[in-house]
Design goal:
By secondary structure, the protein is α+β, with helices and mostly antiparallel strands. The chain folds into two domains: about 10-195, no CATH class; about 200-290, no CATH class. Helix content is about 30%, strand content about 30%. The protein contains six helices and twelve strands. It has helices at about 10-15, 50-60, 115-120, 200-235, 240-245, 250-265; strands at about 30-35, 45, 65, 75-90, 95-110, 130-140, 160, 160-165, 165-180, 190, 275, 290. Strand 7 and strand 8 (about 160-165) form a beta hairpin. The radius of gyration is 26 Å and the shape is elongated. The termini are far apart.
């Protein structure tokens, strides 16, 4: 599916499947749009690649509206073709090749649509969001399907050094796609073509990645310090119990707990922890104090 400006007879034939009569090239405006991808989004979720492949089938023929408002008057465009694109030079936060579901949409050139077409070409109407249903929402940490079972893990939290997110799998339907102001997936939107990231963007991404790694390390260090303080102040809880409790806490909660436990340890003149428990150690006797 090439990125083109002039519409071809082949494109018109595909579009005409959704029209009551054959359309002329002068009647049709068409444009490519990134519907969704496999990157972790603002909600802490991502589509699996097989899910994107299924959505590619489901989104053919689906209408484009505004702000997910299903009124008929909000219908503005329709997807007539889709394609899965994979960029082997770019990895997602989950370590997969960056993969997008690209749709090609069309609308009829009318006086009513003239302003919308101008806004699309001018980059004003750009961001989009999809509405669909999936059968499975799987936790990246424990693998539980939160559609059918409970899960204590929270999106965005670190567990054993890995940030939790939820994987959307097995799509069952695609409802519509909408022009929105703030999409859940930052990369979703109208595009001229899928261009490679320039050097400036690469440098910025590298810096952000480095900062994210640093923050993750600092949070791991904080969890380690709080774990040690728990072993000093509440030794009967055991390492597994403490680990389970701390895994549910946000950074702010950990900082507050660290402050409270530090004050208690100093006030009660409790012994200092020399070493953390080793793997396989008895959970109530694995700490070495002095």
């Amino acid at each position: 599916m090439a990125d083109i400006t002039e519409i071809t007879s082949e494109e018109l034939e595909k579009i005409s499947r959704f029209a009551r009569k054959p359309l002329e090239s002068t009647e049709v405006y068409h444009f490519p749009v990134i519907l969704c991808d496999n990157e972790i989004d603002r909600d802490g979720e991502r589509f699996s690649i097989p899910a994107l492949q299924k959505l590619a089938e489901l989104f053919v023929g689906r209408t484009g509206i505004f702000d997910h408002n299903p009124k008929g008057e909000n219908q503005s465009a329709r997807i007539y073709e889709t394609e899965i694109r994979t960029d082997g030079t770019k990895k997602t936060a989950a370590g997969e090749d960056y993969t997008t579901l690209v749709g090609r949409a069309y609308m009829i050139r009318t006086a009513k649509n003239a302003d919308l077409i101008a806004e699309i070409d001018g980059g004003i109407k750009k961001e989009v969001s999809v509405s669909c249903s999936v059968k499975t929402r799987r936790c990246s940490v424990c693998g539980a399907d939160t559609k059918t079972s409970s899960c204590a893990h929270r999106a965005g939290k670190l567990y054993n050094g890995k940030r939790c997110h939820f994987i959307l799998e097995n799509p069952t339907d695609a409802y519509e796609w909408s022009f929105v102001a703030v999409p859940a997936q930052p990369n979703a939107g109208v595009t001229k073509k899928l261009a490679r990231v320039d050097s400036g963007d690469k440098a910025l991404r590298k810096k952000l990645d480095e900062q994210r790694v640093l923050l993750d390390r600092l949070e791991l260090d904080l969890r380690g310090e709080v774990t040690k303080l728990c072993a000093v102040c509440e030794p009967l809880l055991g390492a597994k119990t403490v680990s389970s409790l701390l895994s549910r806490m946000e950074t702010e909660e950990l900082l507050s707990l660290k402050e409270q436990l530090s004050r208690r340890a100093a006030k009660e003149n409790l012994p200092q922890l020399a070493a953390l428990p080793t793997r396989g150690a008895d959970e109530t006797r694995g700490y070495k104090l002095h």
